[in-house]
Structures are given as structure tokens and as C-alpha cells.
Amino acid sequence: MIDRLAAETLLRLASQFPVVGVTGPRQSGKSTLTKAVFPNKRYVTFDDRTMRELAISNPSDFLAAFPDGAVLDEAQKVPEIFDALKMHVDNSDFTPGKFILTGSSQFRLKQNMTDSLAGRAAFLKLLPFSVKELKNEGLLSDNPYDIIFGGQYPPLHDPEKHFIPEDWYESYIDTCLDLDVRDQINADNLSTFKKFIQVCAAHSGQLLSMDSISRDVGVSAPTVKRWLSILENSFIIHFLEPDNNNLGKSIVKTPKLYFVDSGLLCHLLRLDSKEELLLSRYKGAVIETFAVAELLKHRMNQGKKPNLTFYRDNKGFEVDTIADWKHTFAIEIKSSNAPEAKLSANTKKYIELRGDDNTRNAVFYLGDVSVTVNGTSYVAWKDWGDYLS
């Protein structure tokens, strides 16, 4: 098993809250992580019909059968369990980390836990492998396009499995449609929804244009908005909101859309190889998507809010990502493999606009060596997960 950076965070949360929910996209390793971190806890999956029916029929007695707690996988499939958990926690001695709940449906799991377990539960979001996790295991190629094109979902990096990424991603999309989407939209719209996902892929790294997506898919803008929410709650996409930092009223107010995994994005863009990616008009957007996903993983693995935005004014001046963390980082993301001075122009201008001595600037690039030149950090792709630490 590849060691997950989120394991320490999961233990930290479980030392404070009686219930911890672990959410994330399908196949991100939630069950593997929870079983590894809590090897002595009983593991119950509600994919098992027998267990599901037992829990539904008498949730209180079901929980009482686990005096030392348990890992309850796919907990959102038994909504009745959440009120029972509230009563169980309130009527028992305070025991941190007693029940660990996992689920691939962030919306259902978090909604149920928030409604029933407010103040009693914490959440951890687990995304696919980060570059740092694969780097720690010696599993990174020296060619960044191998990982950018191939993606970072755990099954694709399991030495005991031999998935062909194209086949795996096609199956993954079908699974998401069947298990996460089918009960939220009209069944007659499933094929249209699949087209919608592909159209969204062409918009990754761009300002969100619901009218453009609506036109390309052939559905109304309100439908696009609702379907985008489904993708976001399934951890397929993420939105970056615009940053203002009191820099005036001329900034854009529209978020940018990003996919969470660059490999899935490449598949949806119908790119057949990393060589084709290199020549594609989408190359810059895919690399930017890859970098933003790494920043998301860095924060989520620590159990923290992303606090990621971007800056763009109505004249087109833009900084790819603003990370408001312990310090503020203005980050440009480039496909260059050389640390050229011109790559930092926008981040330096942004710092001047802010007039803030605490803001730092960086260029994420695809080179092999991280260096600092004239106050700008040029961060090699293998170090993206380490730089902001």
C-alpha cells in the first residue's frame, strides 16, 4: 500500500471527534486508508445487502453491536444510521474516533452528517494520489507527462492490477453515471449528461461559461448549473473563485472550472497518448489542471479548506492561482521546462498591486530543479507538493 499523507490528519481528527467522515471521489482509496489507519476496528460495508438491511431495520441495535466502534463504508446508503449515531454518541461515554464513516457521495454523506451530527463529526476529503505520495514511493517517472496523461487514481498505480488507463477511465465514467448520477437526473438524459462531461472537459482551466456549455450540450443554463453541482459533489470537478484582495471593482466575478484528475481530463478530451497531449491545444489547460489539483490535495490531506483563488481583471491580466495560506502565494503555472525570468512577470505585477510584503511569488514549471532567482521561486513539478509546506 502507498502511504497516504492524509493518514496523520485522519488520526488527528479521530482523536477529537466521536465520528469522522471520509469523503472523496470513487476509487480514491478511502476504504483502503481507513482500514490501514484503524486495523483493529470492525469494517462494515453497506454495499453488502445483508448488512444494509440489518442497519435499516434497527439502526440503534446495529450500532450497539459494535461497542468498540467500526468503520462504516458507503454510509450514505443507510440514511437511518445518522440519527441513530447522534443518539448513540449523545447517550454514550465520549469516545473520540469511535465510528469512521466513508462514502463516495459527498453530498449525501455530508448532508446527512451535517443534519444529524453537527458538532459531533469532522470531515476529511481524500483525493487521488498526489505527486508527493507517488514520489515518496519511488513511483514517479522522470517525464512529467507520464503522470499528467496517465492520472493519479490509485487503481492505476496498483502493481497487482494491470489496468489500461483508457479502459479504466471509460469504466469509471460509466460507474459514476450509474451510481452517482442516475438517481439525480431523468434516466433519458444519461447520454446527454455524458456529452455534458466531455464538453466540460474542454472548459477545464477556463472561466466558467454556462451559456457556452448550455449551447454545446443543448440543455438549458439552469440544467447546466444543476449538473455542474452533481459533478462537483462527485469530486469530478472543482471551482476556483476569483480573488479580489481589495484591488478594485475591475476584477472578473466568474469562477474557473477545473477537473480534479488530469488523466480523466485527457481521456475526456480524447487524447490517445502523452505525445498527442504535447501537441494538443489543450496542453496548457491540462497542465494547469494538474497543478491546481496538486494544490487541492496539499490542503485536503491536511484537513484544511483549499483557500485557493485566481486573479483576473477585465483587461485580461491574470495570475493562475492565489493560495491564501500561512503566507499568500501568487503562483503562475507554465509548461516550460526552463526557469525563464519572463515567466514571473504576472506574479510580480500582482504583488505590486497588492503592495503586500508578505505575498510570495512562484512559478510552477515542468523542469527538474527548483531554484530561486531574483526573489521568485521556480518550482520543479516533482516539488509542487513540498514547496508550500
Radius of gyration: 22 Å
Number of strands: 14
Structural class: alpha/beta
Proportion of residues in extended strands: 15-25%
Number of domains: 2
Distance between the termini: 24 Å
In spatial order, strands of the major sheet run 6-8-7-9-10-11-12-14-13
| Low confidence ranges | none
Major sheet: 9 strands, mixed
- Percent of residues in helices comes to 40-55%
Give the helix tally.
Answer: 17
- What does the average pLDDT come to? 92
Question: Can you characterise this structure?
Answer:
This protein is 42% helix and 17% strand. With 389 residues, it is of the alpha/beta class. It has two domains: 120 residues, 3-Layer(aba) Sandwich (Rossmann fold), CATH 3.40.50; 257 residues, no CATH class. A hairpin with a 2-residue loop joins strand 13 and strand 14. The longest helix has 18 residues. The mean pLDDT is 92.
Topology:
Blueprint: H1 6-14, E1 19-23, H2 30-37, E2 42-45, H3 49-57, H4 59-64, E3 70-73, H5 80-91, E4 99-103, H6 106-117, E5 121-125, H7 131-136, H8 144-150, H9 165-181, H10 190-201, E6 206-207, H11 210-217, H12 221-233, E7 237-242, E8 256-259, H13 262-268, H14 274-279, H15 283-300, E9 308-312, E10 318-324, E11 328-333, H16 345-354, E12 359-365, E13 371-373, E14 376-380, H17 384-387
Parallel strand pairs: 1-4, 1-5, 2-3, 3-4, 7-9, 11-12, 12-14
Antiparallel strand pairs: 6-8, 7-8, 9-10, 10-11, 13-14
Helix pairs in contact: 5-6, 8-13, 11-12
